[in-house]
Amino acid sequence: MSVFTTVLARDLRLAIRQSADSLTVVAFFAIATVLFPFGVGPEANILARIAGGVLWVTALLAALLSLDRLFAVDFEDGTLDQLVLSGVSLPMVVLAKVSAHWLTTGVPLIVISPVLALTLHLPMEGYLPLLLALLVGTPTVSLIGAVGAALVLGTRRGGVLLSFLVLPLYIPILIFGTAAVEAATTGMGFTPMLSVLGGLMILALTLSAWATAAAIRQAVE
Amino acid sequence: MMEKLLTFLDMGGYALWVWPAYSLTVASLVGILVLTVRGLKAREREFEILKAQRRGGEAS
Amino acid sequence: MGASVGQGWNFDVHRFANPTQFMRIANAIFPWAAGLSALLFVVGLPIALVTSPADYQQGETVRIFYLHAPAAYMCMMVYGIMAVGSAAYLIWRHPMANLVARASAPLGAIFTALCLICGMLWGQPMWGTFWVWDARLTSTLILFFLYLGYIALGDAFEDPERGDKAAAILALVGSVNLPIIKFSVDWWNTLHQPSIMSKKGFSVDAGMLLPLFLMLGAFITFYIAVLILRLRSELLAAKIRNARLSQVAVNHAPQAAE
User: Fold this and answer.
1) Measured between beta carbons, which residues in chain B are less than 8 angstroms from residue C117?
2) pLDDT band at A185 (very low <50, low <70, confident <90, very high)
3) pLDDT tens per residue across span C203-239
4) Helix (H, G, I), strand (E, B) or coil at C84
5) Which residues in chain C land under pLDDT 70?
6) Are C187 and C121 in contact (CB under 8 A)?
7) At what angle do helices A2-17 and A19-40 cross, to 10 degrees?
8) B33 vs C226: CB contact, 8 Å cut-off?
9) Domain that holds residue B37
10) What is the 3-state secondary structure (H, E, C) of A3-71?
11) Which of B43, C24, C29, C60 could form a disulfide with C236 if both were Cys (CB 3.0 to 4.6 A apart)?
C-alpha cells in the first residue's frame, strides 16, 4: 500500500507545482463546450437537448489532452525504468498514477461541469445525474486512457495516436453517461445507467492496471 | 441479346448501387493483392542483393 | 526461392526455427488456397451477379448482400485471429503468432471497409439513406477504427519488436472491449431506434445460400492466400534486418581482431 501512497503523493505534489497543466485541461473543456452554441445556434431547447452529450464529449476530449503526459515525463527522465527495476508492484504504481490523474483532471472537470451546463440550459433535473455519471465515469476514462498512454510511450506524434487508440474504447462510457442525463431530463430513472457505469469502472479497475503495467514493462525494456 | 445485356447492367434499376459495390470490392481485393506481391518481390530483390554482397565480402 | 533463402546464414535460430516449419506448412497450403480462391471467385461472382434470382422484397440489391455479409463475417473472424495471435505472442512468445496478427490487420481493415461501404450502398436504396446509426453498422464502424489504431500503433515505433508488443497488447484490450462496445451500441440503438428500418430484416431463402457461401469461401481462401504472401514478406523483412545488423557487425569485426 505504501507504494500506492508514495507515488500518489509524489504525483499530486508535482501536479500542484505545475497546476497550469490542470487549468489548461479545464480551460479546454470550457472553451470546447462554448463552441457548440456557435455551431448549432443559441436556441435554448436545442442546447438543452444536446447538453448532456456535449458535456460528455468535450470532457472526454479534455481528459485525453492530459493523458499523453501521464507516463511520458517519467518515461523520459528514467523514473519508470527505476520503478520497473526496483521490483515494486507495477499495477499498484499504475493505479496510484491514474488516481492522481483523476484527482487533478477528472475532479476539476466535474467541478466546472455544472457551470457549463448552465450555459447550455440543461434542465434542472439533469444536474444530479450529470454530476453522478461524471463521478462514476471519469475514473474509467483515466483507467482506459492509462493503457493507451503507456502503449504510445516512445512514439512520435504520441498524442494523436493516443486519441486514435482510446476514443473508440470510450464509446460505452459516452453512451451510458449521456443516457443518464437524458433519462433524468425525460423523467425516467437514471440509476440503471449509473450502475452500468459503475460496472464499467470495476471492470476497468481490475483489467486496466495489468494491461498498463504490461505496456510499461515492454516500453522500458 | 443486347437487350438482355442492358437489363443485366441495369440491375432492376439498382445499377447505381450494385455495380459500385462490386467494383469497389474487386478493386480493393486486387489492390491489396498487388501491394502484397509487390512488397514481397521488392524484399526478395533486396535480400538477393544483400546475399550477393555478403558472398563477395567473404571471397575477398 | 524457398530453400535457398537463408543458406549459409547464421540467423538467430530461436527466432527462425519455428517459422521455418510454420512456413513449410503455409507454403504447402498456399497453392491450394490461391487456386481455390480464384475458382470460387470465377464461379461465385457470376452466380451472385447473374444467375441467382432477385429477392422479391429487395429486388436486385440483394446482390450487394452477397458481398456485405461475407465481408461482415471476415472482419469479425480476422479480428478474432488477431486477438488469438496476439495472446499467443504475449504468453508463449510465439513469433509466428505475432506475424499472423500483424499481417492480418490490413486485410481485416479492408474487409471491414468493404462491409461498411457495401452496407451503405445497400442502405441507400433499401432505407433511403446511406447511413443509419444501426447497431451493426455502428459496431462495424468502431471495429474499423480499432483496426486502424492497431495498424497505426504497430508501425509507430523505430524498434519493430516494440511495435509488435504494443500492438499485441492493444489487440487484447480491444478484444475485451469489443463485447462491451457491442452491448452498449445495441442498447443505445434500441433507445434511439428510429422507425425507418425497425423490422426490415429479411429471411435468407434457399436461393441466396449458394452465392452467399461461394463468396464467403472465396473471401476466406483469398484471406489465407494473401496472408501467406504477407507472412513471407514479413519474414524476409526480418531476415533483411538481421543481415544488415550482421553486416554492421562484420564491418566492425576486423578492427576488433587486429
Assistant:
1) 21, 24
2) confident
3) 567 778 888 899 999 999 999 999 999 999 999 988 8
4) helix
5) 1-17, 56-57, 192-204, 250-258
6) no
7) 70
8) yes
9) 2-59
10) HHHHHHHHHHHHHHHCHHHHHHHHHHHHHHHHHHHHHHCCCHHHHHHHHHHHHHHHHHHHHHHHHCCCC
11) B43
Q: What is the ipTM of this complex?
A: 0.89
**Cell output for A19:** 497546476
- For A179, the closest of C173, C180, C191 (CB atoms) is C191
Q: C59: which strand partners?
A: C55
Beta bridge partners of C55: C59
Which C positions 145-164 lie with beta carbon below 8 A of chain A? 145-146, 148-149, 152-153, 156-157, 162
b/e sequence A82-116, b meaning 16+ C-beta within 10 Å: ebbeeebebbbbbbbbbbbbbbbbbebbbebbbeb
| C117–B21 C-beta distance less than 8 A | yes
Work out the minimum CA distance from B24 to partner chain C, whole angstroms.
8
Chain C positions in Cβ-Cβ contact with residue A168 (cut-off 8 Å): 142, 145-146, 149, 177, 181
Measured distance CA(C175)–CA(C169) in Å, rounded? 10
Residue by residue, DSSP assigns B19-49 as: HHHHHHHHHHHHHHHHHHHHHHHHHHHHHHH
Task: Report helix, strand or coil for C115.
Answer: helix
Place of cell 443518464: A180
C-alpha cell recorded at residue C47: 452466380
Give the rounded distance of the alpha carbon of C257 from its chain centre: 49
Number of domains in chain B: 1
- Reduced to 3 states (helix: H, G, I; strand: E, B; else coil), residue C106 is helix
In 3D space, the residue among C230, C241, C11, C225 whose CA is nearest the CA of residue C101 turns out to be C230
Distance of CA B21 to the CA centre of its chain: 17
User: Using one digit for the tens of pLDDT, what is the confidence trace for A102-126?
Assistant: 999 999 999 999 999 999 999 999 9
Report the chain C residue with the minimal C-alpha distance to residue A156: C156
**Rounded CA separation C107/C222 (Å):** 10
